[in-house]
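How it folds:
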Amino acid sequence: GKGKGKGKGKGKGKGKGKGKGKSKKVDAEAGEKRGKKRKADGESGSEEEGEKGAKSKRPMTEKKKRRKEVTTLYGELINPGRERKADVIVGELLEMLKERPAGLGEYCSKDLGSRVVQACLKWGSPEQRRSVLSSLKESIGQLAVDRYGHVVVLKMLRYVALTSKQRKPSPEEKKAQEKNLRDLLEPFRGGKLHGIFYHRHGCKVINGIYFADSVNTKEKRRMFHEVAIPQSVSLLRPEVPGSKPLRELVAAKSDLSAEDRKTVMSHLREAVDKAVDKELLGYDIVHLLFQAFCEHADEAQLKDLAEKCMAGAPYLLSSKPGAEALLRLLGVISAKHRKGFLKDIKGKFAALAMNSVDYLVMMRLCSTIDDTVLLGKTMLAEWIPELESICFDKYGHRVLTWLLCPGDKHLFSPYERESLGLPAPTAIKESDKRRQELVRVLRPALRKVLQGDPLKAAADLCAKNLLIAYLSDDWDAELVESLLKACEQAAEKKDMGLLNNGATTTALLVLLKLGAADGDGGLAMPLWKRVLEPHLEKAVTSRCAFVLLALLKREGKVGEAVLKVLRSKRKTVEAALKAAKAKGAEVKGVEQLLEAMDKTSAK
């Protein structure tokens, strides 16, 4: 029947041969094709090659030719190993760009055009840079908000005012520099300025202008205040914009009336809201708006702003004005926002604690977040592996010291105490309870670091404050014993090692006062018996003389013991003083020590 044979049926039958026969035939044909070798020289092959060659040899259009010429010169210009002078190549490029039917401003709005003009500005002569500026003068405002053009504007800012660093610029060069800057900054005035400022690329340009060294302070303030101060105030008080920093203008002590300050604050509120909407928190100039507004805003205004901006709050950490605004916002945000903020800066807690601006933010977090378990799992968990670096860091040690001795006038500046004492109405937990819970988590790791080398910590300008704060919070006898052992080892050295260090002397003097409550069984007697008395001759001519002086003035058994030994070895002390004077060493300490001995003996 039809279809029963394998491969013989035409597809109408019901047998299995339908598919197999057809597939075998197709496979055979495909195999035959795959099995054939390509002819090296065949007619068909030569015809195909001829067609491909014809396609590849099509004449280039004028546009492509010009593009190729430009890219060739651009590649030569940016090549460090070029043979021709850079200004010669720039000259050829500029001549070629003049022949373009479209203007140079339109060309800068393209990727290649932007790169080419940037290279011309970088490698060109002052005259060539001036030529580029003149050609683009009318287009600067449009380029400032363009994806590729705004980079050209920033490059012009950098290079049109550039003069030689190796010599003082001549009067002609100064005039040319001032004229270039005037031409460049002319578009950034009036209504255009607002449109540029609230644009993603335009704000980057204005940020670059505001923080440029070549632009004078008056021009920077003028530009910034056109954005920050409403026209209703600036028109009636033309002397106001540019006369003072924005923070001083908004302050209660400024010359503005209460009504004008209220108008300015309302305008600032609109400005920061618009900056949040346009996602401009990444620029430092916007942080100045936040700083001025948050400093004088009430609790309701701060809460309203926090609701809108906390998603981008990590950007505020990049500048001091931004961090100061964030300090105030952290006092009013909800627990949900605090949790979200901790999540946003995850992995950066150790670096932020050692940052010159953001260490205060870390201290503020410790002072305002009630969920200490969350802080322990996030911030403290990241600090502990880096604790040694934080302890010896200029700013990091202050964060840890604040947890141990918050608000200490001897350890913290008025600015730090004021910043950390800002209102925090949404922080409900008692501050001392919150602090104790955090210290409980941190103390074992901190003790391990300090006990590892307590004398090194005492000799460090930063870590000594942390050591003092740690023992002030909880007098640890084992840590004091480790410090005494380290002092004994240092005293064996010829120059008394780290004991002959100003920071160590200061630390020991403070610790002696802390240990006074423990009587003679504290630090004083062991320090005298084990460290200073066995090496008295070396100690009196080192910085340890001031420690001996403090022990001598101490009431009780320690003072008596020191006085008795010094009297018996007075000749030795005087001989050491004479020898030190002969060497030109500092002997102020031992002289005060001998003077104190005489006064004590007279009593």
